[in-house]
């Protein structure tokens, strides 16, 4: 997936909505104007068709979880409600995850980064193997915890590599970053011995660098 992920924040507190929009305003994401009610959210969904909604459970004119259930969109519920029944109801409605307010900015930022990696794996219309599906779900739910010494972009690039290797252009396409960004991070990872670099010689021209995850 190379297109920017369009995010709609649905929260009736404009200060909270602004905070969440600020966190979501990161590379690979486009943040839409926030919606403060169910009605405004439905209008924004109709007009702008976001890829992901970040929605409060309780809104002035209805239930955010019912909104999640009624729209064919990825959703994450952000709510002060911490009772198990509400969390179960949100997950049954189709929410990909649930964060209890108040939470640290990093918690939402990390979740959005994991969502981008998950979407990169499942975003096509092709068939998914079980191993690929398990990997995507593990990433989304934090089963593959990123190293504290690595950036989110490095983690994304590492996920784009496999045992057969890939060129910088292929890594850029798979991870949704520019070729220059991919090349820079690949070189840094190779210099630290985290990945291997091999040359593939064609019939003509310069050899191609292939990057392999160890």
Automatic annotation (TrEMBL):
<feature type="domain" description="Response regulatory">
    <location>
        <begin position="6"/>
        <end position="116"/>
    </location>
</feature>
<keyword id="KW-0010">Activator</keyword>
<dbReference type="Pfam" id="PF12840">
    <property type="entry name" value="HTH_20"/>
</dbReference>
<keyword id="KW-0902">Two-component regulatory system</keyword>
<keyword id="KW-0238">DNA-binding</keyword>
<keyword id="KW-0963">Cytoplasm</keyword>
<dbReference type="InterPro" id="IPR011006">
    <property type="entry name" value="CheY-like_superfamily"/>
</dbReference>
<dbReference type="Pfam" id="PF00072">
    <property type="entry name" value="Response_reg"/>
</dbReference>
<dbReference type="InterPro" id="IPR024187">
    <property type="entry name" value="Sig_transdc_resp-reg_cit/mal"/>
</dbReference>
<dbReference type="InterPro" id="IPR011991">
    <property type="entry name" value="ArsR-like_HTH"/>
</dbReference>
<keyword id="KW-0805">Transcription regulation</keyword>
<dbReference type="InterPro" id="IPR001789">
    <property type="entry name" value="Sig_transdc_resp-reg_receiver"/>
</dbReference>
<dbReference type="InterPro" id="IPR036388">
    <property type="entry name" value="WH-like_DNA-bd_sf"/>
</dbReference>
<dbReference type="InterPro" id="IPR051271">
    <property type="entry name" value="2C-system_Tx_regulators"/>
</dbReference>
<keyword id="KW-0597">Phosphoprotein</keyword>
<dbReference type="InterPro" id="IPR036390">
    <property type="entry name" value="WH_DNA-bd_sf"/>
</dbReference>
<protein>
    <recommendedName>
        <fullName>Transcriptional regulatory protein</fullName>
    </recommendedName>
</protein>
<keyword id="KW-0804">Transcription</keyword>
<feature type="modified residue" description="4-aspartylphosphate">
    <location>
        <position position="56"/>
    </location>
</feature>
């Amino acid at each position: 997936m190379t297109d920017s992920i369009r995010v709609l924040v649905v929260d009736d507190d404009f200060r909270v909505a602004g905070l969440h929009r600020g966190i979501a305003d990161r590379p690979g994401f486009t943040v839409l104007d926030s919606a403060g009610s169910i009605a405004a959210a439905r209008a924004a969904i109709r007009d702008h068709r976001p890829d992901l909604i970040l929605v409060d459970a309780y809104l002035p004119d209805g239930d955010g979880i019912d909104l999640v259930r009624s729209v064919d969109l990825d959703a994450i519920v952000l709510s002060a409600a911490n009772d198990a029944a509400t969390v179960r109801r949100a997950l049954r409605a189709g929410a990909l995850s649930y964060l209890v307010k108040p939470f640290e900015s990093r918690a939402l930022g990390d979740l959005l980064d994991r969502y981008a990696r998950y979407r990169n794996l499942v975003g096509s219309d092709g068939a998914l193997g079980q191993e690929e599906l398990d990997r995507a779900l593990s990433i989304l739910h934090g089963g593959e915890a990123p190293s504290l010494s690595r950036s989110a972009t490095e983690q994304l690039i590492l996920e784009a590599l496999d045992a057969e290797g890939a060129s910088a252009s292929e890594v850029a396409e798979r991870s949704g970053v520019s070729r220059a960004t991919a090349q820079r991070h690949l070189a840094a990872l190779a210099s630290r011995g985290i990945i291997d670099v091999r040359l593939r010689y064609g019939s003509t021209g310069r050899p191609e660098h292939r990057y392999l995850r160890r």
